[in-house]
Amino acid sequence: MPRPGEAALSARQHRILAEAAAMLGDARSLSDPLLVAEHLRLARVAFDSLVGRTTTEDMLDALFGRFCIGK
Predict the structure, then answer these.
(1) Best exposed site among 34, 41, 57, 69 by fewest CB in 10 Å?
(2) Rounded CA gap, 34 and 40, in Å?
(3) pTM (predicted TM-score)
(4) Residue 37 falls within a domain, yes or no?
């Protein structure tokens, strides 16, 4: 049981939140804007997966995975 003020998380949720936190922490320590943007994007992807949002990459994989291109 979680203590008051704590959330009950599954192992999957805990892993995703840890991944997002790591990406956000890394972004704070970087000076290159492109690397900061990439780490922020990866954190957002983790949050999207946590709440069940599909990404553009997921949609494209699903779309092109069903069709044979070039025949």
Answers:
(1) 69
(2) 10
(3) 0.68
(4) yes
